[in-house]
Amino acid sequence: MSYKIFIPRDSSALSLGADKVYKEILSESKKRDINIEIIRNGSRGLFWLEPMIEVETSKGRVAYGPINISDINSLFDSEFFLGKKHNLFLGITEEIKWLKNQERLTYARVGITDPVSIEDYEGLDGFKGLKNALKLSPEKIVQEVADSGLRGRGGAAFPTGIKWKTVLDAPSEKKYIVCNADEGDSGTFSDRMIMENDPFVLIEGMIIAGLAVGADQGYIYLRSEYPHAQKILNEAISIALEKNYLGKNILGSDFSFSLEVTRAAGAYICGEETSLLESLEGKRGMVRYKPPLPAIEGLYGKPTVVNNVISLATIPIIMDKGANFYANYGMGRSKGTLPIQLAGNLKQTGLVEKAFGISLRELLYDFGGGSATGKPIKAVQVGGPLGAFLPKEQFDTPLDYEKFSEINAVVGHGGIVAFDESVDMSKMARYSFEFCAIESCGKCTPCRIGSTRGMEVIDKIKTGVDQEKNVSLLRDLGDTMVNGSLCAMGGMTPFPVISALNFFPEDFGLEKTETSA
Amino acid sequence: MALSSLQSGKIAVYIQEYQDKPGALLPLMHAIQDDLGFVPEESYKPISKAYNLSVAEIHGFVTFYHHFRTHLPGKNILQICRAESCQAMGSEKLENYCQEKLGIDYHQTTKDNSITLEPVYCLGNCACSPAMMMNEEVIGRVTPEKIDQIIKEARES
User: Fold this and answer.
1) Hey, how many other C-beta atoms are within 10 angstroms of the C-beta on B46?
2) DSSP E strands: which ranges in A386-510?
């Protein structure tokens, strides 16, 4: 009999030495003549415990972590392969509070399965959503998605059902499904985790999208910084092809769908949907004017669904368990769950999938455990480099698209980056402009030039040059960028800048005033 | 610098391979750079002829994307993440440490040609900040000691 051991292959786990742990456990087991079977599963997303290994026992899987190479001898000495205690023993994995307190719907399988095992996927409800969808009319599928209340998880939060309906109603011989996997926001990694740890769920979601709107071709536009995800996706696609989940006459139906991965080339702006389409067409990623919407005239001028990875990966569970099941989670108009990514200066970083409505404070302290450095958390940035900085006075804001919008902040793609009190917020504001200057496509003047001028104005404020005038100039510039840019790059860069200025004026060498806080 | 006949031959093969593919430039440039290490400007002319594009359009395409380079890099490419999450965990000190240790700035290559240093804006490893990437290997919770080790290994490889 062999003992079953799980060692993750997620690239964050690998970045902490999971491959070395794998090799060492393998060689030690041979040395000791212990028969083990190693499964390279995905990560559960408890990254402060990675590399975290698991052992199958009669009571369920038990976990150990974080594992160092130097721990492996003592793990074998204490017979970890039997699930016995060790000082890195974490108990039954599913009972770890951090994991137990989550509501994993989109992430139901992540970390449990071998990402490229289609048997594992099918064994845990995989392709049930597709099989249901194949029995329905396109209108019914679109209605189900609309009823679920799912909104675009890339950040714009546009209702997915409405987008699909537009594409379905657009008459055309050719339509496309494009998955936006250009996850460039700092503090986010939920797309990467889905692609590396449960690629079939994305593939299934894209097939259903194709079925719903009448598209037979899909592209995954994947950022070049994710080589590991690319390998896993390609492996999963070829397995799905073999099993006829992709290709011609899927599962004996009339429906055919082909799917390929296109590797991007390191331009943040290509996460913007029209710029992405330009790039896919083999051009510079210059933002397009809207209208026409991509749903009407998208890739090569054809009706195109452009959805984020998480939106598409959430479709299978909606089609499996029904719109109501999904819509019962969440609050207000923010239905369902969001895979939240805890990053930056936090003790317990990782992936927390929760229904909308959880407060930032719960995320930062109950899940995050406070800052990694032990110093007080001064600010958090939610929703990537274009999201506002929130001071501790706003930590009770519930995660909800509308509540965030009321305080000029965004939920975005659900990334939360925490900063301790050592952060200089004027530097962060300056960096926001610098990033915009580096990544702007250059089409709109406020974004292309305003970003550089913004850096200069902040420098002047900091060195005490005409502070009053320059603060007003900075606000004016922010206004111009918000109102005078075609897309969110220029249109939202002022959010982090102005929030930093409003809440942390002392970091700019300004006096804290009544209006500032 | 003129291309070797081997390089020109490879480029010609890739041009043909992607000729009929919609949106060919993106996969074509990746294929060229993955093989040769860079996209030589000398490739613009044959591409322009085969794909019916102007040389300016091809130049515009290549220079738009941070990933593509028009000069051969060092044997290894070290990317340091400069984005917010890594900044929150002290990446700026690591950037300085790396640059001092290697004696180069971003977009430069060490004298021994072993390492080219590049900035990167997020590696999706934000739960393990600060992060870097050596070639295609992501490294998390980077410390100066880890940098020393990575650089040593790269120089010996």
Assistant:
1) 13
2) 389-391, 415-420
Co-location of A222 and A146 in the same domain: yes
Entry pTM: 0.97
3-state secondary structure A275-294: HHHHHHCCCCCCCCCCCCCC
Closest among A262, A224, A311, A228 to A42, alpha carbons compared: A228
Look at residues A82, A83, A72 and name the one whose alpha carbon lies nearest to residue A27. Answer: A72
Rounded to the nearest angstrom, the gap between the alpha carbon of residue A210 and the centroid of all alpha carbons in its chain is 22
Could you tell me the residue range of the domain that residue A161 belongs to? 118-327
The beta strand positions in A363-414, using DSSP E, are 377-382, 389-391
Average pLDDT of the residues in A373-379:
98
Which residue reads 């055919």 in tokens? Answer: A256
Does the pLDDT value for residue A356 go beyond 70?
A: yes
Chain A residue numbers with beta carbons less than 8 Å from the beta carbon of B64 are 267, 284-285, 441
Whether residue A230 sits in one domain with residue A124:
yes
**Domain shared by A242 and A94, yes or no:** no
State the ipTM, two decimals: 0.97
| A489 inside domain | yes
Please name the residues in contact with A369: beta carbons below 8 A apart, sequence gap of 6 or more: A346, A347, A348
Chain B environment of A435 (Cβ under 8 Å) = 83, 121
What's domain B76-156's superfamily in CATH?
A: Glutaredoxin (3.40.30.10)
* Residue bearing tokens 């010996």: B156
- Tokens matching residue A129: 């959503």
User: Are B129 and B86 in contact, with CB atoms under 8 Å apart?
Assistant: yes
In which band, very low, low, confident or very high, does the pLDDT at B1 lie, cut at 50, 70 and 90?
low
Q: Are A444 and A485 in contact (CB under 8 A)?
A: yes
Tokens of A267: 């331009």
Other Cβ atoms within 10 Å of B115 Cβ, number: 24
Show residues of chain A in contact with B133, CB under 8 Å: 225
Q: Is residue A107 part of a domain?
A: no
Does the pLDDT of residue A72 top 80, yes or no?
Answer: yes
Containing A165, the helix (H) or strand (E) segment is: helix A160-169
CB A316 within 8 A of CB A201: yes
Q: Chain B residue closest to A223 (CA)?
A: B123
Q: Does A439 touch chain B (CB under 8 A)?
A: yes
Tell me which of A277, A305, A327 is where a domain ends.
A327
At A467, the amino acid letter reads: Q
CB atoms within 10 A of CB B66: 17
Question: Which of A372, A505, A317 lies closest to A48 in space, CA to CA?
Answer: A372
DSSP structural state of residue A376: P
Buried-exposed string A292-312: b where 16+ CB fall within 10 A, e elsewhere: ebbbbbbbeebbbbbbbbbbb
Q: Do A265 and B67 touch (CB under 8 A)?
A: yes
Q: At which residue do the structure tokens 């913007």 appear?
A: A272
Taking the C-alpha atoms of residue B21 and residue B10, their distance in angstroms, rounded to an integer, is 18
Using CA atoms, how far apart are residues B133 and B122, in angstroms rounded to an integer?
Answer: 10
**Mind spelling out the 3-state secondary structure of A204-224?**
HHHHHHHHHHCCCEEEEEECC
Q: Are A413 and A430 found together in one domain? A: no
**Token code pair at residue A279:** 């790039």
CB contact under 8 A, B124 and A282: no
Contact B125/A282, CB-based, under 8 Å?
Answer: no
In a domain? residue A188: yes
pLDDT at A516 > cutoff 90: no
Contact A15 B128 (CB under 8 A): yes
pLDDT tens digits, A480-494: 999 999 999 999 999
- With an 8 Å Cβ cutoff, is A202 touching chain B? no
Both structure tokens of A501: 């200025």
Q: Which of A225, A268, A372 sits opposite B123 (nearest CB)?
A: A225
